[in-house]
Design goal:
- By secondary structure, the protein is α+β, with helices and mostly antiparallel strands.
- The protein has 3 domains: 31 residues; 88 residues; 117 residues, no CATH class.
- It is built from 6 helices and 8 strands.
- Strands 1, 2, 3, 4, 5, 6, 7 and 8 form an 8-stranded mixed sheet that branches.
- A hairpin with a 3-residue loop joins strand 3 and strand 4.
- Helix 3 packs antiparallel against helix 4.
- It starts with a helix and ends with a helix.
Length: 245
Amino acid sequence: MDTQLIISLVILIVLADIGAIILFIKYRRGDMEKNPFITILKKEAIVFYYALFKWKVRRTEGTYAYHKGSNYFWLFIALLHEQVIEAFAFHYYLKDVDPLRADILVVLHVYSILYMLGDYNLVRNSPIAFKGSGVQMKIGVRRSLCFNINDVAAIQSARTQYAKSGGIIHEKNVFHVAMLPRVFTRVFGMIDELRYEIIFKEPIEARGYFGQRKVVKKALIYMEDAEPFIQDLRKRVLEEDEALA
């Protein structure tokens, strides 16, 4: 094992330790209800289950898919091709020169490919769902938001806001109902078209990947065909208001 590989592994281990310490502190502080390390293991298992076994999308009444028409589809195809080609190229180039590094890179690429497949399938299989008087919004295992119909103050059309410099204005305390991972919006400025926003009467809690709490004041809807869901939600909100009147 050469010096460069050892240094790379040490850096990765140190970064992983720092991340683990931060998660542990947040957990002990009460920012997360469940142990984040157990949460990660469970979510990893779910992702790989969907990558290998759960491909069929099933729709039931009261559910609305938000992944259709997302820019993530084309990005997903491009990333998948890149990972496959890169895995073969690195392995072919390094198999005789540095077999250990070649094996490590192949394992990492296979992991990346399976994770992307699982994440994509999981999001496809996680539509917005009405559960009685509640609304469940799960973006795969990335983040989730559950609220009651009577938590809704207003539902209105919305558009992505841009600064004078041309950059996207990122609102705080909002929940994004979009298939495209937020990291691509933050880093590369990629975004699906914002259609509607659901404003809540009072701030409510959403959950992040590690189970961390996040207070949100509104949910932003990026669905290509959002009308059926919005009409259904407005109807349920109206019925709830009439029942409480």
